Amino acid sequence: MTGRVYNQVDGLLLVDKPVDWTSHDVVNFLRRRFNLRKTGHCGTLDPFASGLLMLLLGKACKLQDCFMAEDKVYSGTIQFGIETDSQDRCGEILRRSDNVELDEAVLHQALSGFLGEQLQIPPMHSAIKQGGQPLYKLARKGVEVERKPRRIYVHSFVIEQLRPEQAQADFCLKCSKGTYVRTIAADLGQKLGCGAHLLELRRLQSGSFSVKQAHDVETVKSWELPDLLEHILPLAEISLMLQSASEA
After folding, report:
1. Residue 215, φ and ψ in degrees, nearest 5
2. Whether 216 is catalytic
3. How do residues 199-208 score in pLDDT, each as one tens digit?
């Protein structure tokens, strides 16, 4: 009896992940659609988030750690006045503040405190493992455990539009790997005394790659194998890019 024959594809594909898909959903879709043995991604996006997802195929999977180490750029919306247990719109509401006054000067002053190197406590609703079990599984059971702070770096944090009547602010954030943007939103709400959660999130950039270069899932659904081969960055090319970046 012979084993299954897979297509050997080695390279990088940039996909614009849609809302309500998990990052693993995109990986599984690509693997099944093109009969691939090995596929991985560089940095999880929550189901409610959209944007750039870097998919590594075949031998390119060995470069995962290199790509995940790069800085990320996000845009999104913060909802002030409501705290949730997951720090985003998908969680259960813990507290509401009826009187939210968003003063632009006070908000910008608060943002400055998030710039630079800092320690961030990961949220319970995360895939970080403790005792071999993901924290989000413990959170679903109502269990909260102590988490070790992680060192992160925020390069920029800018409010692009403020909507006081809705207690919302659109932002753009550039940060290091491992940064939980929803935790920054929740911490900002705590700092302002009104609470907050992350309402929308979109990854715009990872390292030198932009979501403008990415293909949406509906387009990829229409591809056959030759189309995939045409749109991936080959292994040799991405290896050269990483080498050039390390020498810069």
Report:
1. -105, 135
2. no
3. 999 999 999 9
